Amino acid sequence: MELAIFAGLAAVAAVSGVLVVIQRHAVYSALFLIITMGALAGLYILLEAHFVWAVQVLVYAGAIMVLFLFVIMLLNLPREDVPWRPDDFRRILIGGALAVVLVGELVLALLFQAGEQAPALPASPGFGTTETIGRLLFTEFLFPFEVTSVILLVAIVGAMVLAKKQLL
Amino acid sequence: MSELMEALITMLVKVGVVFATLLFVAAYLVWLERKVIADIQVRWGPTRVGPFGLLQPIADGIKLFFKEDLIPGHVDRALFLLAPALSVIPAFLAFAVVPFGGTTTLFGLLPKPVPMYLADIDVGVLYVFGITSLGVYGIVLAGWSSNNKYSLLGGLRSSAQMISYELSMSLSVVGVLLLVGSLRLTDIVRSQEGFLLWPLPKWFVFIQPVGFVIFFTCALAETNRAPFDLPEAETELVAGFHSEYSSMKFAMFFMAEYINMATASAMATTLFLGGPLGPLGPSPVWFVGKVLVLLFVFIWFRASLPRFRYDQLMTFGWKRLLPLAFANLIVTAVAAAALGMGG
Amino acid sequence: MTVPLSAYLILSAFLFFLGVVGVATRRNALIVFMCIELMLNAVNLSFVAFARSLNSMAGHVFVFFVMAVATAEVAVGLAIIIAIYRNRETVDVAELNLLKW
Q: How far is A76 from chain C (nearest CA, A)?
């Protein structure tokens, strides 16, 4: 049962991930990216990460992708926004080769690890709940948590300054 | 009958009841709105179909159902067809975690008490916010795929408005969460049992009045209701994102709007008005009663307030509501720490 | 957890691969940006899978941080894209060669 759900969600994530990369228009790319994120959210439930699921839906699907769509619509790009160029073939060849090398490396690393993989530990009570994450954030990870707020503040100010019609 | 089958059947029946109720509410909310606004404007409203025009929603439904389904030639077909569904599905899904009553045995018909909610999950509040924030895709994609400048503007306005008001909305709820110490909606309801100061019940609206006002204001904006109905402003955008839609697809947008209103009212009831809690009588009646009062306020606002200008909307959201929500949160946190009330 | 950890890791690696391909081959700045998000998501998946497998919540906390940083990145990045579009009327990264030499 769990395996079947995993296979389904993984297939959805992989196929829509491919479609993100090959779509001609940015709106369709964004849509398929939303579907990929939705499938990943489903996988998070399988992994008993309920808080991460909620944040994935709320932040990625609910805020970041809406922002993407907003900008795509604001720029109102034509259907074929970036026409084909003669040097694109070379770009695809080199880029693809680079990516294949990278993923080959990852797969090799995985294969060498596979033998010594320990069986998964059973989830302890309170695993993945908001309360446990909150406790961790305010004890063990307090400093990074506070730094995150500074990053967000910098991002807000930066976005404000950049998006303004004329600088200062 | 095995345990599992029993649970499954109970669940299916509950889902069916909630789904049917929401459809009914969506239809009759339109009737209520027309009647109430007519009364406020000293008119009669619908009177012809059935007594008090009570059959009007059914007549409207039949009309929309049998109308020709037009798809303009210049639209992006796939997204044009997808958008109404994307807007109506999250509207239904969000209701899944709202507790609409205590437990019931259905007047002794059932062997053991059945809790009156569809699901009780650890991240309840986040679930509702997450799902409702997906509703904007329907509107944005409808605006874009219609390939029409008014629709595009409607979609743009809607996405900017949703993002802006969602912030204040979430922050206004944090005050309540701080006092409860749980995101579970049933926990939130349970913590509102008892009295604050007899006969004042211990509802969060009395402890967090500012939070409630911010939440309700943002709910108006999130559901695209007057005075924040800029995405569909008839007078400037010729109905905005749904200009190009007709028949059932238009009906789906319409339904989504009214179900979203019901969900927002249900959330306000759960978070601030004690949910299904009440002194006597069956709890679902209390829940429905409170939701109806809030829905009446929604309609009342529409009849009384003119639409905001776009810059006023943004200024109000970012420069008034957001700082107010932050101030409310800080005061709540300090008070909770000082009085040792936190969850 | 009947699904083995390696299944999650392979999916994660595949999504990361797609992200890399997208960033290396696409010229629309918005799609390039979305592919970066895809890579971040792929990494998040392996974090959560490891967290479940090792029964340690630190992975979830990391995902939280990744998301916070991703949000900041999107806010600034999209602002930059808008600013560039205003000046150059294009989102084609191959045309933005002012600093090339």
A: 11
- H helices present in chain B, as ranges: 3-40, 56-66, 77-93, 124-145, 149-180, 185-190, 204-207, 209-222, 234-237, 247-272, 283-304, 310-315, 322-339
One DSSP character per residue, A49-68 reads -HHHHHHIIIIIIIIIHHHH
Q: Is B133 on the interface with A (CB under 8 A)?
A: yes
User: What's the pTM value of the predicted model, to 2 decimals?
Assistant: 0.86
Q: Could you tell me the fold of the domain covering A1-80?
A: Four Helix Bundle (Hemerythrin (Met), subunit A) (1.20.120)
B129 close to A (CB below 8 A): yes
* Residue B192 backbone dihedrals phi, psi, to 5 degrees: -100, 5
> What residue numbers bound the domain in which B265 lies?
76-339
| pLDDT tens for each residue of B95-147 | 888 887 766 666 666 666 677 777 777 888 888 888 888 888 888 888 888 87
Residue B115: strand pairing partners: B103
Q: Å from B188 to nearest chain A CA?
A: 15
CA atoms within 13 A on the CB side of B244: 28
Q: Do residue A85 and residue C67 have CB atoms under 8 angstroms apart?
A: no
Question: Which residues in chain B have their CB less than 8 angstroms from residue A27's CB?
Answer: 79, 141, 144
Identity of the amino acid at B120? D
Cα–Cα dist B235/B306, whole Å: 12
